[in-house]
Design brief:
The protein has about 300 residues and is mostly helical. It folds into two domains: about 40-135 and about 260-290, de novo design (two linked rop proteins) (Up-down Bundle); about 140-260. It has helices spanning about 1-35, 35-70, 75-100, 110-135, 140-165, 170-195, 200-225, 235-260, 260-290. α7 (about 200-225) runs antiparallel to α8. The radius of gyration is 36 Å and the shape is rod-shaped.
Length: about 300
């Protein structure tokens, strides 16, 4: 019986020691958290996180603009990767900061401000995904390259071949000149099509191209129907070069219709710019809220300048 009583006493003593240890740990933790130096360091850590997020956000935006304005696929891809990497750093900082803020009940509202930023940043990332996917295609730049390069070259060869149809026949000269003029008019309609963002206006430009194309074919067919010209090698060259031009024009129109450069630039200057400002404002407000946190032993949460 005494042994049993002794064991109970020991158990009660052990339980008392455990409770005492827990109390001491709580007191130690409480005092540690109330230590002004520790609170200042904790505040500085969170402010540094916000500052880093603001810097990474700016870097992501700068790299995105470089991707949009780059003139080669290689450069566009490089800058797009840089933009994604910087954006990933912002997301990492957002997660780290979330672990250092209270879930709710903060007098300065940091959790709510972080939630506002998170919503805006999710939209930032959505826009970036669409924008960067367009920027790296460079379809408008490729279309311009074809228009002022191969397309112009083969059309020049066609023009030269028709000019070499040496004859005094007025009908031959009229057909040749009209074909040349219509072909060059068609070419001048291509750059505006590449630059155009509105699909209805692109349709209108293509309709004008079709009119000029029909004129060229009509004139070339008219020349081919003339016995004196039908077997002329210059006419054969002209028809072949115009067929080459038509194939290149089809590729140009397809690239122009994608409008990746025009669309990515429009998104960058409008949607992306607006959401960028919202994100930066949210981070600035969050930074101020953290600085405004009161610290025991100090006059206020923010440093006071000496008079």
């Amino acid at each position: 019986m005494k042994t049993k009583t002794g064991i109970n006493d020991v158990l009660w003593m052990l339980a008392g020691v455990a409770v005492l240890l827990v109390c001491l740990l709580m007191v130690f933790h409480f005092h540690k958290n109330q230590d002004p130096a520790a609170q200042v360091a904790f505040k500085a850590r969170r402010v540094e996180l916000v500052d880093r997020m603001q810097l990474d956000l700016a870097s992501a935006s700068e790299a995105e603009k470089s991707a949009v304005l780059a003139i080669t696929d290689e450069d566009s891809l490089t800058f797009a990767d840089q933009a994604r990497a910087a954006s990933a750093k912002v997301e990492q900082g957002r997660r780290e900061l979330g672990e250092l803020l209270p879930v709710s009940g903060s007098p300065t509202g940091e959790p709510e401000l972080l939630a506002q930023f998170s919503t805006a940043f999710a939209e930032f990332q959505r826009i970036d995904k669409e924008l960067l996917a367009l920027a790296v295609k460079n379809t408008n730049l490729k279309a311009y390259s074809l228009a002022f390069g191969p397309a112009a070259t083969v059309l020049k060869a066609m023009d030269a071949a028709l000019a070499r149809l040496t004859t005094e026949d007025a009908q031959v000269l009229r057909f040749a000149d009209h074909a040349r003029i219509a072909a060059w008019r068609l070419l001048t309609l291509i750059p505006p099509h590449i630059a155009e963002e509105d699909e209805n206006k692109e349709d209108a430009l293509e309709a004008l191209m079709a009119i000029e194309d029909a004129k060229v074919h009509q004139c070339l067919d008219g020349l081919a129907a003339l016995p004196k010209i039908s077997s002329n090698p210059e006419l054969t060259t002209a028809r072949t070069r115009y067929a080459d031009f038509t194939q290149i024009k089809t590729r140009i129109i397809a690239l122009s219709r994608e409008n990746s450069n025009v669309r990515s630039l429009s998104i960058s200057l409008n949607q992306k710019r607006k959401i960028m400002l919202v994100c930066q404002d949210a981070l600035s407000a969050l930074r101020q809220a953290i600085l405004a946190e009161p610290i025991a032993g100090l006059t206020s949460g923010t440093p006071v300048r000496p008079r």
